[in-house]
Write a structure and sequence with these properties.
Helix content is 47%, strand content 18%. The chain is built from 19 helices and 14 strands. The protein folds into three domains: 10-114, ATPase, nucleotide binding domain (Nucleotidyltransferase, domain 5, 2-Layer Sandwich), CATH 3.30.420; 131-293, Nucleotidyltransferase, domain 5; 313-451, Hypothetical protein af1432 (Orthogonal Bundle), CATH 1.10.3210. The protein has 506 residues and is an alpha/beta fold.
Length: 506
């Protein structure tokens, strides 16, 4: 990835939502993202989840066909300027990896499955860049499988939550076959209230000045109210307007009967569920009105990507926040980072490692000791658990999985089954990064600022590495002994580590 983006260069984002897939292409204009093209298709991935939470073949084919059409529009966008994110439906799908593997044959970049709170953060980023920044705002985004609620100021989220309710999931649960009834609507509202109730106290205590809605559901509700004359003079969606929409909708017995000016056909089936969710949120959080923003997840993804090019990478902020939260030793972390980066530079070309691999190794080196906050015994396992299961801003679930595996194997014995696990998750490159991190940690076992010997790492071939330790080995007897022990561990992963020093030559 280049270190900057110049004006007029293109960025793109694909948002694989539970209801619709969206593509946005934008150019960079004085540090701002200006959309130049967009596509949206109703895929209803969430509707394709069977009773066992597996994506049906039909749903997978709908998704793949849509992605193929999107790719046809991406010829002018470089791969490193594209991000593809998937949300609740793929978070839920037990066979999601099958779909991702099929999609990899079509797409120029891997799909990132993002956690609910990361989705919320990116939505807020998209909304905040599309509006004037005045005061504290509550952002509501009703998706197909989940609803995100965020409180933030300017470009910074303060509280992010993702709750398990969405217009596709609720349609399946309460409005099956397209039938509408007061009883079903009340059941949907009750279910939505329960989902939101857990965050009421925190959110009301934080407070907000304005409420902003994003997503197709809220856009449709607002547009209907504007067209029907049920909005206020600023064309905001009000509580009274929502009441009128609900009452009118409940007069119909089936979604096919609904007649609302401005209701698009692809939104018709999920409107009752969307209205029920929005009604519950208005009720529980005591909202009077909201404004609509066109900014959403895909815009947030592009601004996040732009930040990475401009050295404002949220991932690095998150790494240092985690270190602070778990009281990791910053001096030792810096030592390991410096050694890891040095080793990486020696072998990157031979092992075909990329800048992204360097970033991954660096972040793992910073975070490898956070598990000490839980227990010294087996702290590498605790570190791995925290990285796997924490909400870490800027990181996809795959990113966190990589980090988790790196720190899990940075010490103690290496087993053959561990190697197979690492290869399954991230291939040869992840295995190489594991070994580089092990060496970096081992070389800094003294936890001191005393000068280390000059170290040079060479890749002789796929199964053979050579580590040269320059200087008088008498100064580092323990280090040389530990390196000797490490040869055994490398051998378990089919890498022969040759160590050369003045007094220790294999």
């Amino acid at each position: 990835m280049s270190d900057f983006l110049i004006d007029e260069e293109l960025l793109a984002a694909i948002d694989m939502g539970s209801n619709s897939f969206h593509l946005a292409i934008a150019r960079v204009d004085h540090g701002e993202v200006k959309k130049v093209a967009s596509m949206s298709e109703k895929v209803q991935l969430a509707a394709g989840l069977d009773e066992n939470k597996n994506l049906t073949e039909a749903a997978q084919q709908r998704g793949l066909a849509c992605l193929a059409r999107f790719v046809g529009r991406l010829s002018s966008v470089q791969a490193n300027r594209l991000r593809i994110v998937a949300t609740n439906a793929l978070r839920q799908a037990k066979n999601g990896h099958e779909f991702i593997q099929k999609a990899a044959e079509i797409l120029p970049k891997p799909i990132e499955i993002i956690a609910g709170r990361e989705e919320a953060r990116l939505i807020y980023l998209g909304v905040s860049h599309s509006m004037e920044n005045s005061g504290r705002r509550l952002v509501i985004d009703i998706g197909g499988g989940s609803t995100e609620l965020i409180i933030g100021e300017e470009f910074e989220p303060i509280h992010t939550e993702s709750v398990q309710m969405g217009c596709v999931a609720f349609t399946k649960a309460y409005f099956a076959e397209g039938e509408i009834s007061v009883k079903a609507f009340e059941r949907a509202i009750t279910a939505a209230r329960k989902e939101v109730s857990g965050l009421v106290n925190t959110y009301k205590e934080a407070g907000w000045d304005t409420v902003v809605g994003s997503s197709g559901t809220i856009k449709a509700c607002r547009q209907i109210c504007v067209n029907m004359g049920w909005s206020n003079e600023k064309e905001e969606l009000t509580r009274e307007g929502l009441d009128k929409l609900k009452d009118k909708m409940l007069k119909y017995k089936h979604i096919s009967d609904m007649e609302f000016e401005g209701l698009k056909e692809d939104r018709r089936a999920v409107l009752p569920a969307g209205v029920a969710i929005l009604y519950a949120v208005f009720d529980v959080l005591n909202i009077d009105k909201l404004v609509y923003s066109d900014g959403a997840l895909r815009e947030g993804v592009m601004y996040d990507l732009l930040g990475r090019f401009q050295h404002e990478d949220i991932r690095d902020r998150s790494v240092h926040a985690l270190m602070g939260r778990y009281n990791a030793d910053p001096k030792q972390a810096e030592r390991v980072v410096a050694t890891a980066q040095n080793l990486f530079e020696h072998v990157a070309d031979a092992l075909k490692l990329t800048v992204d691999d360097s970033d991954l190794l660096r972040r793992a080196a910073y975070l490898h000791e956070i598990g000490l906050a839980i227990s010294h015994s087996g702290y590498h396992r605790h570190s791995a658990y925290l990285l796997q299961h924490s909400d870490i801003a800027g990181f996809s679930q795959i990113d966190q999985n990589y980090l988790s595996h790196l720190v899990a194997y940075h010490r103690r014995k290496l087993r053959l089954d561990a190697k197979l696990d690492v290869l399954r998750i991230g291939g040869q490159r992840l295995m190489y990064l594991c070994l580089l991190l092990r060496l970096a940690v081992l070389l800094n076992h003294s936890r001191s600022d005393e000068m280390l010997p000059a170290i040079e790492l060479k890749v002789i071939n796929a199964q053979q590495w050579q580590l040269s330790v320059s200087g008088d080995a008498k100064q580092w007897p323990l280090l040389v002994a530990e390196l000797h022990d490490e040869q055994v561990q490398f051998k378990h992963w089919d890498i022969e580590l040759n160590i050369q020093s003045e007094q220790f030559i294999d």
